């Protein structure tokens, strides 16, 4: 769990979550050591490997299910090859969404990025509803394009009419 992930784990527990499952490719940060293991389960794995994602969802145990998945994992920065961004940011998002549905988790909160909306033009004074996801081929870098692809996939799964509803949002 990176900076945002560590804080999210803490906030969820402070606000009454009975258990939080943190999933990351990196080893657990020392800041999480003070949280009791019956409250926080840390699972190491790769978002792009569906078996690892299934293992993370299964960490809730056979008598419980994940109520809400907060998907904040991403490969960021201008340092990597496009195929690696695609693998983590797009395929990772597909895996989280698909496994959530498989496991009976009906809520996904996905961390978006302002870069999915920017095309290099001035956005000063624009409202959020005026900044839609850029169309394919109109991104400034592979990170933004692959984040937008993942976000589009997750948001298309939103279905308020299903029983129970499958709710997705990107923030």
From TrEMBL:
Residues 1-161 form the NAD-dependent epimerase/dehydratase domain. Gene3D superfamilies: NAD(P)-binding Rossmann-like Domain (3.40.50.720). InterPro entries: Epimerase_deHydtase (IPR001509), Lipid_A_modif_metabolic_enz (IPR050177), NAD(P)-bd_dom_sf (IPR036291). This is NAD-dependent epimerase/dehydratase domain-containing protein.
């Amino acid at each position: 769990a990176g900076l945002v992930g560590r804080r999210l784990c803490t906030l969820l527990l402070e606000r009454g979550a009975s258990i939080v499952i943190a999933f990351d490719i990196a080893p657990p940060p020392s800041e999480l050591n003070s949280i009791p293991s019956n409250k926080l389960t840390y699972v190491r794995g790769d978002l792009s490997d569906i078996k690892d994602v299934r293992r993370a969802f299964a960490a809730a145990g056979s008598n419980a299910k994940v109520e809400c998945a907060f998907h904040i994992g991403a490969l960021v920065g201008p340092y990597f090859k496009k195929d690696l961004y695609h693998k983590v940011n797009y395929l990772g998002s597909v895996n989280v969404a698909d496994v959530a549905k498989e496991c009976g988790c009906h809520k996904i909160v996905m961390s978006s990025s302002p870069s999915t909306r920017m095309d290099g033009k001035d956005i000063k004074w624009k409202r959020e509803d005026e900044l839609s996801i850029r169309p394919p081929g109109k991104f400034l870098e592979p990170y933004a394009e692959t984040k937008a692809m993942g976000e589009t996939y997750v948001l298309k799964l939103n279905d308020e009419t299903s029983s129970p509803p499958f709710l997705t949002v990107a923030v």
